[in-house]
Amino acid sequence: MHNYSNLGSSCFQPVLKWTRLKSNANNREVDYRESFTLSILRGISHELRRANPNLKPVSQTTAFSYLINEYRKHQVTEKRTCKSAEELSTMAKTYLCYLQSLRENQELIDRYHSHGERSVEETAKLVGFSLPKSANEEIPEKEI
């Protein structure tokens, strides 16, 4: 069995069980599926904003408009139109994971592949090693 707990991506987070609980304050039912779905939508909009920081606001993009329309279309009739109860949320989580992975991939490419040829010292530091001091460098003597 694989342990994905050390991975930073939220793609491998465990699937939550959905329950309805009564709130003590005003005795209304709270659907945690809706709040979790909204958090996924916020995450997708955050990733879209990070992917295009110099463009127009995310709310004015066609991708975000399409996403909002899909959420509204499946808001009430999710159980009736979807093949499974979690199909829309699974698709949204997959899209969020895809956007996060694209961003992390671009960060890794920028970090490791954009510098051209590196010196031996830089390469050693990159993989976590340090080079031994050369014989030409003087080693300071300890005072007793």
UniProtKB/TrEMBL annotation:
- Which GO cellular component terms, listed alphabetically, does the Swiss-Prot or TrEMBL entry include? mitochondrion
InterPro entries registered for this protein in UniProt: FMC1_homologue
What the entry lists under CDD domains is as follows: Complex1_LYR_FMC1
User: PANTHER family from the entry?
Assistant: PROTEIN FMC1 HOMOLOG
Family, similarity comment: Belongs to the FMC1 family.
Name of the protein this chain belongs to: Protein FMC1 homolog
Record the organism: Argiope bruennichi (Wasp spider)
Classification from the root reads:
Eukaryota, Metazoa, Ecdysozoa, Arthropoda, Chelicerata
